[in-house]
Automatic annotation (TrEMBL):
Pathway assigned in UniProt: Amino-acid biosynthesis; L-proline biosynthesis; L-proline from L-glutamate 5-semialdehyde: step 1/1
Name by which UniProt lists this protein: Pyrroline-5-carboxylate reductase
Record InterPro entries: 6-PGluconate_DH-like_C_sf, NAD(P)-bd_dom_sf, P5C_Rdtase_cat_N, P5CR-like_CS, P5CR_dimer, Pyrroline-COOH_reductase
Function according to Swiss-Prot or TrEMBL: Catalyzes the reduction of 1-pyrroline-5-carboxylate (PCA) to L-proline.
Source organism of the structure: Leptospira bandrabouensis
UniProt gene name: proC
Family label: Belongs to the pyrroline-5-carboxylate reductase family.
SUPFAM superfamilies, alphabetized: 6-phosphogluconate dehydrogenase C-terminal domain-like (SSF48179), NAD(P)-binding Rossmann-fold domains (SSF51735)
GO cellular component, one term: cytoplasm
Domain Pyrroline-5-carboxylate reductase catalytic N-terminal: 6-89
Binding site for NADP(+): 64-67
Amino acid sequence: MNPIETVGIVGLGKMGAAIATALVKKGTKVYGFDPNLKESPVKGVVLVKTLEAIRNESEVIVIAVKPNLVVPVLKEFSKPATFVSIAAGISFSQITENAPQGSLAVRVMPNLPLVAERGAFAYFCEDNAATNVEQLFYGMGTGIRVAKESLMDAVTGLSGSGPAYVLTFLQAMAEGGLQEGLSYEESLSLAMETIEGTLVYFRSLRKEDKNLHPMEVKNWVTSPGGTTIHGLDALERGGFSTAVRDAIHRATERSKELGKG
């Protein structure tokens, strides 16, 4: 797949900087605009002083500002371009209605692991812009194109916010080991490898059997009367599964709320 050679990013906060970092790694020429910065937080990104410069230098423009700033930023552009918004809750129609006439619009929800080429993202756009998205995020992880825009809020609640859930679980595991006498570094190291190793293992199993369910593999580790079943019982008495589902639901609802302004 031919990569996009030049990309402009408006807003170099955590997510904008993450995308910039991943693009620079691929050899893409990246131009950044952020009025709050005097220098780029990402080595290799050329910081420009105007949105006009971003437009003139870039094949694709990523809008990585806070949701309430997306529309005002789009209105500042006078020439059509391909605009990719990563803002939670900002609808496809809001992008198309406020971008210059003739522009292509894309709504994307990525997550931070894309910096390590292990991101999860979803996008919604018309057919004529799909290639741009695939080229932009190529090599950054796993992406899906959703058939209905309404599903973007669920993506936001699941994978967009998901790294925070995983890191919270990681910290809880490390604290559990600490509580039982391990050092924090020992606990954290074991917890990280357990989480990552389990996912790598399960992914390898799914290559052989795409219908394999996580709970089936969980049962392989859970022997009658053993340690694991007692640990799982404690998780469920604490409402673990329900809490995770509720977290995704609440984050999804918040994404919808952000779209309403």
